What does this fold into?
Amino acid sequence: MTTTPSLPSASETSDLRTLARSLAMEAGALVRGSRPDEVEVAATKSSAVDPVTAMDRAVEDLLRRRLAARRPDDAILGEEGDDVTGTSGLTWVIDPIDGTVNYLYGVASYAVSVAIVAGDPDPARWTPLAGAVHSVVDGVTWTAAREQGADRDGLPVQVRRADSLATSLVGTGFGYEAERRAEQARVLRHVLPRVRDIRRLGSAAIDLCLLADGRLDLYYERGLNPWDMAAGGLVAVEAGAVLSGLDGAPATRRMTVAGSPDRQAELVALLEEAGA
Ligand code: IPD
It folds into this structure.
């Protein structure tokens, strides 16, 4: 069992946010500047439709090199490489391209996500400290630091408060495995008639930031990896969202539900009713 270390001071946390922002923006510039007309799949992961591109690897490599130089004592948990252990009790949780399928097809929603957490790098136990999500195509950057709020390109963001679940716009996503998708489709059939509409934009990190920014009312997804949710989840919480799982559990791979307090609780109840 890992014990939670004492947390960095507010000013150290603020510096971590600045670093997360600059790393996400530098990596985003690499993705933006080097997208070939035809992107090729370099490998697949959990299924034949779960791709890795050369750019995923190049960006992860860049982030790892920068972190090794700037924060050599911290651990790294990244989507595309081996875990790096550290001695500081802090872990960088990075997703070089969240929304790889969109990147592959040239659909606009994909992002670089960089976060730092204290304690076990497990969403059930970690304490997110700072994070940044850089949306590559439009160049927008959201950042947050623990107990210091969230911003979009430097301006504070706040979740919106929908009047009811029935008038809420809900983001979600689907996993890469057929069996998981069949189950997600079953749950979606229960949710869709009871909300304003559904958006499946293809990047969980951006979805969570859009929620923080008041452009989605709610978000839920089963199967998120730590790097999909680390930065975006902190941005959402710092913008006033509640982030949880079902049945009183924290947000984890099992289920992540986010939104303003009243509506989030209603969506949790709806998903529990659906046996999600
Ligand atoms: C995926 C995206 C997608 C979500 C999937 C994730 P990736 O991340 O965030 O929106 O629905 O669950 O795996 O594979 O593009 O990094």
